[in-house]
Specification:
heterodimer; A: 271 residues; MetI-like fold; 2 domains; 10 helices; 78% helix; B: 268 residues; alpha/beta; Rossmann fold; four-stranded antiparallel β-sheet; 10 strands
Chain lengths: 271, 268
């Protein structure tokens, strides 16, 4: 049987998907054990018990200076920045993308501006943001928004503009105005695409969050990673990175689930 | 004889290229006009012109004696070959959409009693096209023929003065196509429609139409083929009134009492 025709059942998929991850974990443990055999104080590849010890301090013991449980305070601070940034970017993408996509005069007026903003590397704007907005939360959220919103706006605008012309004509023959076409024809069809755009923007959003936190912050997952780097604390960095990966995966999966639940028509229902 | 729609010396030009030239047609109320012609003869351009999707370069178009604005409106319904239904709405909501747009300018949604009245009207319309059992399915869950039935129901609920069909059955297989022919003939008679249909299928054009218009170029310049446009080269009035069509259908299918039986819905 050709490999292109081999379909994998759900159970087998889980099993097969777990194999490379487990292999990587095993490889890491093997290398770490090897290094520890040579030097029991090795810091570069910490063993699981070392990570547990280091993390339990951050997880369960209040910080002497602030009295906070640092791991949870970091997570909360980062998720708050990420959430506000993603929320603003998503809302902007929906509103601006929809209007740009469906109304040709608006597209002609603001299309070049959006394209211009989108091609600026956001990190290059970070100094401007810090100067203009200070080193507080606003600048970090603004970096995330500026980093991901233009791409999302362009994606939604292109998607709406690519709706079949027949549909727009048909809506007009049914008596729909520009406004009615926007809210009843374009908006609902842009929604699944919007969730998809958010999913794809999660990666860049994390990049901008960690960058902003690394440069100027006093709390957050990115801040902690860059802080403990000075002490070569791989036993904190590796669990933090794994935790970030887990958070990102959960967000991605829940967006997929949400899209399938809310918009079944966009996910290949067929007769 | 008062014409419902009249085109007077209409030209369509795209820059240098002339698509239609000197088209003068009168279309009577209640007629079923088939438009045929080779590819590139401007059949679809003519349809878009009547639909209001594009404007004539020269000439005038009158609907009920009033000049036609070059914008689509609810007085002219349309069914395209594809993409004429909204994929994100169920069959019922696709059909209710036209009523919602007229009655609720701001939200384009109806609530309470107005909504149930609209739903009832839409259900009736879907029953008439044979989709009574598929009210809550999305278009992707319907076969090609059923999607076209839905597109027809969606257009008819606005009671358009003219129904425009742009190769509506071109993508369907032959068995389903003949079901659709019976359906459109019945709807044309029951709702006293005026239909203009563009088609590639010459049998379809003669079977359904009360009048067949053939578009083609009268003149041809081999050095500049784009400088002459097409016009109506044949205009055949078929002696087929609505009553005749009904008679024919009665002969074709004796149990005319229950029309829904003879039109199977294709689940292709």
């Amino acid at each position: 049987m050709r490999w292109v025709n081999r379909h994998v059942s759900r159970g087998d998929r889980l099993l097969l998907g777990a194999v490379p991850i487990l292999l990587l974990v095993l490889l890491y443990l093997f290398l770490a054990a090897q290094r520890h055999a040579a030097n029991q104080f090795d810091k570069i590849l910490p063993l699981p018990d070392g990570m547990t010890k280091a993390m339990s301090g951050l997880l369960f013991q209040p910080d002497q200076l602030t009295g906070q449980l640092l791991f949870w305070a970091d997570t909360l601070a980062s998720l708050e920045r990420l959430g506000i940034g993603l929320g603003i970017a998503t809302l902007a993408a929906l509103l601006v993308g929809l209007v740009l996509g469906i109304l040709p005069p608006v597209r002609a007026t603001f299309g070049p501006l959006v394209t211009g903003i989108a091609v600026i590397p956001p990190i290059a704007l970070l100094p401007i943001l810090f100067i203009a907005l200070g080193l507080g939360e606003t600048a970090k959220v603004a970096l995330i928004v500026i980093g991901i919103a233009p791409v999302m706006v362009r994606d939604i605008a292109a998607h709406v503009a690519a709706l079949p012309r027949e549909q727009i004509i048909k809506a007009q023959t049914l008596g729909a105005s520009s406004w009615q076409i926007m809210i009843r024809v374009a908006l609902p069809q842009a929604m699944p695409r919007l969730l998809h755009a958010v999913r794809l923007s999660l990666g860049p959003a994390w990049v901008f969050l960690i960058s902003a936190e690394a440069i100027a912050s006093d709390i957050g997952l990115g801040y902690r990673i860059f802080l403990v780097r000075r002490y070569l604390s791989m036993d904190v960095i590796i669990p933090y990175v794994a935790w970030i990966a887990l958070l990102a995966v959960v967000m991605d999966l829940s967006l997929t689930f949400l899209s399938q639940r809310l918009f079944p028509w966009a996910h290949g229902v067929s007769h | 004889m008062s014409a419902l729609l009249s085109l007077r010396d209409v030209w369509i030009e795209y820059g240098e290229k002339i698509v239609l030239e000197r088209v003068t047609i009168d279309i009577e109320e209640g007629s079923f006009v088939s438009i045929i012609g080779p590819s590139g003869a401007g059949k679809s351009s003519l349809l878009r012109l009547i639909l209001g999707q594009e404007a004539a370069t020269r000439g005038s178009i009158l609907l009920d004696g009033m000049p036609l604005t070059p914008e689509c409106g609810p007085d002219r319904g349309v069914v395209f070959q594809r993409y004429s239904v909204f994929p994100h709405l169920s069959a019922l909501r696709n059909t209710v959409f036209g009523l919602e747009c007229a009655q609720s300018p701001l939200l384009a949604r109806l609530f309470g009693r107005a909504r149930s009245a609209a739903v009832e009207e839409a259900t009736e319309m879907l029953d008439a096209v044979g989709l009574g059992d598929s009210l809550h399915l999305y278009p992707a869950q319907l076969s090609g023929g059923m999607q076209q039935r839905l597109a027809i129901a969606q257009a008819l609920i606005k009671r358009p003065r003219i129904l425009l069909l742009d190769e509506p059955f071109g993508a369907l297989d032959p068995g389903i196509r003949s079901d659709m022919h019976r359906l459109i003939t019945r709807l044309w008679r029951d709702y006293s429609l005026t239909i203009i249909m563009v088609t590639h299928d010459i049998h379809e054009a003669f079977n359904l139409g009360t009048r067949v218009l053939a578009l083609d170029k009268r003149r041809h310049d081999p050095h500049a083929p784009h400088r002459f446009g097409a016009t109506a080269v044949y205009d055949l009035a078929l002696r087929k009134r609505a009553s005749d069509a009904a008679g024919e259908e009665a002969i074709a299918a004796p149990e005319n009492g229950d029309r829904h039986h003879e039109e199977k819905i294709g689940h292709g």
